[in-house]
Amino acid sequence: MGDRTLTRADLAEAVFRKIGLSRTESAQLVEMVLEEICSTIAKGESVKVSSFGSFLVRDKNERVGRNPKTGEEVPISPRRVAVFKPSNVLKDRILEAHSKRAASSSNLESSGLELMRAAE
Length: 120
Hints:
By secondary structure, the protein is α+β, with helices and mostly antiparallel strands. The chain has helices at residues 8-19, 23-42, 88-119, and strands at residues 47-49, 53-60, 63-66, 73-76, 79-86.
C-alpha cells in the first residue's frame, strides 16, 4: 500500500461497489457521514465508531514553546484540538498486518540469501 491516501472518492467508490447504490448516492452518503462527524466534533462532542475508534476534542492549556530557529521562548495560547483514539480492535489489526508484512519481508530476504548462496 505504501504512501497511498484513502480519499472521499475512494470511500464513495467502495460504497458503490459493495452496497450497490449509485455513484451519486454513494458520494452523498459519504459526505453525509463525514459532515455529521465534523459537526459533532465542532460542537465539542465525541464521536465513537465501534471497532474503529473515537474522535475527541481535547482542551490544551497555555504553555511555553520555543522557536526552533532562534531558541526564543514563545507563549502558546490555550486551544481545543481534535484527536483520534484508535480502538483496541483497530490497534490489533494494525499490529497483525505489520507482523505479516515483517514475516513476508524476512522470508523474501532469506530466499534472496539462498539464491545468492546457490549462485556461488
